[in-house]
From TrEMBL:
Top-rank lineage group of the source organism: Bacteria
Annotated InterPro entries: BFD-like_2Fe2S-bd_dom (IPR007419), BFD-like_2Fe2S-bd_dom_sf (IPR041854), FAD/NAD-bd_sf (IPR036188), FAD/NAD-binding_dom (IPR023753), NasD-like (IPR052034)
Disulfide bond keyword on record: no
Domain FAD/NAD(P)-binding: 10-309
UniProt-recorded name of the protein: FAD-dependent oxidoreductase
SUPFAM superfamilies linked: FAD/NAD(P)-binding domain
Organism: Georgenia deserti
Length: 509
C-alpha cells in the first residue's frame, strides 16, 4: 500500500456500504486539502449502493443506477483510494495494520469499521448452517444478487413465502403482492410489526393485509423447509406439522452485525462491535465503528443519550448510521462537538396500499393506571375501513403514536412527535384531517420542517433545489440528499415538484 505524506493522517475504512459512503463523502474535503489520506476496502465488486432500497429494486420500482452512492472516478480524482473485491482478514493493533485476504497489508493511523450486518439465517432443517448454503429458491434480501432473484420470482408471478413480519419483511410482502405475486406472510407473533406497534394497530394492519390478498400465517414457528427432487424449495415446514407451499422463500428475520474482523484483534464485541458515545472501539481512539456493525454501549443510569438502556445491536436503519458517519468525519478532522442523542424511534411503512406510522411509546393502554405519572391514551378505531389511531401523551405532549390508514393524520402526528408538541385538547380534530370534509387545518410545514428523516433534509432545502432547476426526485436527491435513504419521502418530493411545475406553468401562461 502507498505511503502517506508527512502531514496527512492515514484513515482506512473497512466496508463500502451506504454508511461508509457517507463517511467518505464527508472526508473528501480533507482529502483534497491533503490533511487525510483515505483508503476504502470494499468486499463487493461494485461501489456503495443504498441497501435500504434493494426491495424497491427487486419489484422493479427503481434501478441500480438510482441506488448507486459513489462514483469511483470522482473519488479517485479527489485522491480517495478504493479497493473493491478486497476483503479484510485481520487487524494487527500492535503495528496498526489491516491484513487483507490476499496477504497484503494496509497501514492506518485511524481505522474505521463499517462492515455492516448480514441477514440472519434461522437454523431450519434443510439448511447447511456451517457452509451457509441455502436450497435453490431460498434467499434473503440484502444485496443486488438477492434483489435479482426476488425480482425474477415477482415478474413470473410465483408464490412467495415471506418469513418474518418486521418492517423489511412486511414492505417486501406488500410490494410483491402489489406487483402481482402470490404472497404468504409467516411470523411468530400475534400481529405483524409486533415490536413497533400496539395490538389494536396490529389487528387493523392484519385485516388490511388479508384484504390485499396476502395469506397471513400467525404464531408460525418454522422448523425446516421441504424441497423437491431437484433440491428446490417447495414449502416452509412449521412446528405443528403445517406446510406453507411456495416457489420462493424470502428470509426476513433480522440482521446480525458483522463482528468477525473485530474479534481477530480482541476488540469488545456484544451484539456488535462495542463503542462508546464517541464511536471509539479501543481505549486510545485509534479504531472506530459505525453503522450496523457498531453497538453503542453505556451503563450510566444518568446518560442523556441512552437513559440507562443497554447497548443495542444493528437497527437496520440507515439514518442513525449516516448521522454517526457525519459526526465521525468531523471528529477525524478535528471539528466535532459532543455527539447528540439519537432521536426517538419512528417507523414509516413504505407501501403503496397501506399508510402506517409508529413512533415512540405505543404500549400504554387507555385504562392503564400507573399513578400520577401514568400516560394519557386516546384511541380511535374503524377496522372495517382499515383506519386506526392511537396517541400517547404525557402532560399533553405526544410521546407515542400509531396511525394506520390515515395519511394526513399520520403526517400531523409525526410532526408533533418530532417537535415535542402538544396535542389539541379535542383529539378528534386530528381525525377529521382524513375525513370527507377535510380541510387544511393541520399545522402547515415550514421551511425548517424535516422531510427526509434519514438525511435531515428540510422542506426549505428541497424547495430551494427545485427553484434552482432540479426537476426530478433523483436531481433533488443529488442536491440535498433528500430521498437517498429509505425513500419514504419520495412522494412529498414529487408533490413539491408538481406544485412548482404547476406554478411555473400558471406564471408563463
Amino acid at each position: 500500500m502507498s505511503a502517506s505524506s508527512s502531514r496527512a493522517e492515514r484513515v482506512v475504512v473497512v466496508g463500502f456500504g451506504p454508511v461508509a459512503a457517507r463517511l467518505v463523502e464527508e472526508l473528501r474535503p480533507a482529502v483534497r486539502a491533503g490533511d487525510v489520506e483515505l483508503l476504502v476496502l470494499g468486499e463487493e465488486a461494485v461501489p456503495a449502493y443504498n441497501r435500504v432500497l434493494v426491495g424497491d429494486l427487486a419489484v422493479g420500482r427503481t434501478d441500480e443506477e438510482s441506488l448507486t452512492m459513489a462514483d469511483l472516478d470522482d473519488l479517485a480524482a479527489d485522491g480517495v483510494q478504493v479497493l473493491l473485491e478486497t476483503p479484510a482478514a485481520a487487524i494487527d493493533r500492535r503495528t496498526r495494520q489491516v491484513v487483507l485476504a490476499d496477504g497484503r497489508t494496509a497501514r492506518y493511523d485511524r481505522l474505521v469499521l463499517a462492515t455492516g450486518a448480514q441477514a440472519a439465517i434461522p437454523p431450519l432443517a434443510g439448511f447447511d448452517p456451517g457452509k451457509r448454503l441455502l436450497p435453490h429458491g431460498v434467499t434473503a434480501l440484502r444485496d443486488l444478487a438477492d434483489a435479482a432473484r426476488v425480482g425474477a420470482a415477482v415478474r413470473a408471478r410465483r408464490r412467495i413465502v415471506v418469513l418474518g413480519a418486521g418492517a423489511l419483511g412486511l414492505e417486501t410482502a406488500l410490494a410483491a403482492a402489489e406487483e402481482g405475486a402470490q404472497v404468504s406472510l409467516a411470523f411468530t407473533g400475534d400481529v405483524p410489526l409486533e415490536r413497533n406497534i400496539d395490538l389494536g394497530g396490529g389487528r387493523v394492519l392484519l385485516r388490511e393485509l388479508r384484504r390485499l390478498g396476502i395469506e397471513v400465517v400467525r404464531s408460525a414457528t418454522a422448523t425446516g423447509v421441504d424441497v423437491d427432487e431437484d433440491g428446490a424449495f417447495r414449502a416452509l415446514v412449521l412446528d405443528d406439522g403445517r406446510e406453507i407451499p411456495g416457489e420462493m422463500l424470502l428470509l426476513s428475520v433480522g440482521v446480525r452485525a458483522r463482528t468477525e474482523l473485530a474479534r481477530t484483534c480482541a476488540l469488545g464485541v456484544g451484539k456488535g462491535v462495542l463503542v462508546d458515545h464517541e464511536l471509539r472501539a479501543d481505549a486510545d481512539g485509534t479504531i472506530f465503528a459505525i453503522g450496523d456493525c457498531a453497538e453503542v454501549w453505556c451503563s450510566r443510569p444518568d446518560c442523556e443519550h441512552c437513559a440507562g438502556r443497554e447497548g443495542r445491536g444493528p437497527a437496520g436503519l440507515v439514518g442513525p448510521g449516516w448521522r454517526q458517519a457525519s459526526w465521525l468525519a468531523r471528529r477525524l478532522t478535528g471539528g466535532a462537538e459532543a455527539m447528540a442523542a439519537e432521536p426517538p424511534d419512528l417507523i414509516l411503512l413504505k407501501a403503496r396500499s397501506i399508510d402506517l406510522v409508529a413512533a415512540g411509546r405505543v404500549t400504554p393502554e387507555p385504562w392503564d393506571d400507573d399513578g400520577p405519572d401514568s400516560a394519557d391514551v386516546a384511541v380511535w378505531a374503524d377496522p372495517q375501513h382499515g383506519r386506526y389511531a392511537k396517541m400517547v401523551t404525557r402532560g399533553g405532549v405526544l410521546v407515542g403514536a400509531v396511525c394506520v390508514g390515515m395519511p394526513r393524520t399520520a403526517a400531523e402526528l409525526t410532526l408533533l412527535f418530532e417537535q415535542g408538541g402538544e396535542l389539541p385538547a379535542d383529539r378528534t380534530t386530528l381525525f377529521r384531517l382524513d375525513g370527507a370534509d377535510a380541510s387544511d387545518s393541520g399545522t402547515p410545514p415550514g421551511p425548517e420542517s424535516t422531510v427526509c428523516r434519514c438525511t435531515g433534509a428540510t422542506l426549505g432545502a428541497i424547495e430551494e433545489s427545485i427553484e434552482a432547476g432540479c426537476s426530478t426526485v433523483t436531481e433533488v436527491g443529488r442536491k440535498t440528499r433528500a430521498g437517498t435513504g429509505c425513500g419514504s419521502c419520495h412522494e412529498t418530493i414529487r408533490e413539491r415538484l408538481a406544485a412548482w411545475a404547476a406554478s411555473a406553468g400558471a406564471t408563463t401562461g
